[in-house]
Amino acid sequence: MALRAVLAPSVIAADWASLGEAARLAEAGGADWLHLDVMDGHFVPNLTLGPDACRALRRASRLPLDVHLMVARPDEWLAPFAEAGAGRLTVHAEAARHAGRTLARARALGCEAGLALNPETSETALEYLWEAVDLVLVMTVSPGFAGQPFLRGVLAKVERLRARADRLGWPGRLAVDGGIDHDTARLCRDAGADTFVAGASVYRQADPAAAIRSLREALEDGDGKARGGAPA
Ligand code: DX5
Ligand code: ZN
Q1: pLDDT tens, 32-45?
Q2: Is 20 part of any domain?
Q3: Hey, how many other C-beta atoms are within 10 angstroms of the C-beta on 120?
Q4: 223 CA distance to ligand 2 centroid (A)?
Q5: The domain that contains 122 carries what CATH number?
Q6: What is the pTM of this model?
Q7: By residue range, what is the domain housing residue 65?
Q8: CB contact at 8 A, 67 and 80
Q9: Cα separation of 139 and 133, whole Å?
Q10: Do residues 140 and 154 lie in contact, with contact meaning Cβ atoms separated by under 8 Å?
Q11: Which of 78, 108, 132, 232 is deepest in the core (most CB within 10 A)?
């Protein structure tokens, strides 16, 4: 089977006056998912998109909506985003008080369930949750803003998660989010990531669709280490 990385452009880095256009550019560039960063001003020091924006993007795009909930009370937001067309609901380990229950609820709502780990959160947060998650989102910046520099120290955690996931035969996706560009995407791929969220390196470029294509080329270049099967 051909190995293929999943690319998920993050629309918060796009021109907010034209989010529909951002979705169109993602499709034109061959993106697999559209990543929506939901920030509540409590869990992170910023405010972004709510369910209405998600609903509008659902209408504007055929791509699966990958909703990243950076909110203090994720349980309250699962149903509104599921109803607004989310395909995947990712909650933060640091915010989910009963993470197993929250992840099960995301699946019961018909979505895939993801667990995000801040840079300083240990991978041991996953220890009893592997069967409950379809995606692990490793933050490679402190969440809150697009355009921050990649934290190299997190690569070792990606490697440990990959090793553990392989030992368990876990079938989910291992994603990285924050400061992902050509170079850092390749570092993450080599550490075992198979799914790449990218904001500034796509939408703060002159030609976002071309930027997605060139990120794909960088990941599929040469050594055949791109991981994962066909995009879910
Ligand atoms: C950070 C968000 C990221 C961000 C990525 O809090 O979760 O998804 O939009 O943007 P870049 O790729 O610019 O770091
Ligand atoms: Zn994100």
Answers
A1: 999 999 999 999 99
A2: yes
A3: 12
A4: 28
A5: 3.20.20.70
A6: 0.95
A7: 6-219
A8: no
A9: 16
A10: yes
A11: 78
Instruction: Kindly state whether residue 98 falls inside one of the protein's structural domains.
Output: yes
CA of 178 to the centre of ligand 2 (A): 7
CA-wise closest residue to 46 among 23, 65, 68: 68
Q: Please state, rounded to an integer, the average pLDDT across all residues of the chain.
A: 95
Q: What does the pLDDT look like over 58-81, one tens digit per residue? A: 999 999 999 999 999 999 999 999
Number of domains making up the chain: 1
Phi first, then psi: give them for residue 151, nearest 5 degrees: -100, 105
Do 176 and 194 meet the contact criterion of CB atoms below 8 Å apart?
Answer: no
Mean pLDDT of 137-155: 98
Instruction: Single out the residue of 8, 3, 2 nearest to residue 215, CA to CA.
Output: 8
Q: Does residue 106 register a pLDDT over 50?
A: yes
Residue at 230 is within a domain = no
Ligand 1: atom nearest CA of 12 is 9
Residue 163 included in any domain: yes
- Please identify which of the residues 32, 37, 66, 194 carries the catalytic annotation: 37
For residue 143, give the ligand 1 atom closest to its CA: 6
CA distance 29 to 112: 24
The packing angle between helices 19-28 and 51-60, to 10°, is: 50
Q: How many residues does the chain have?
A: 232
| Closest ligand to residue 201's CA | 1
- 């055929």: which residue's tokens? 62
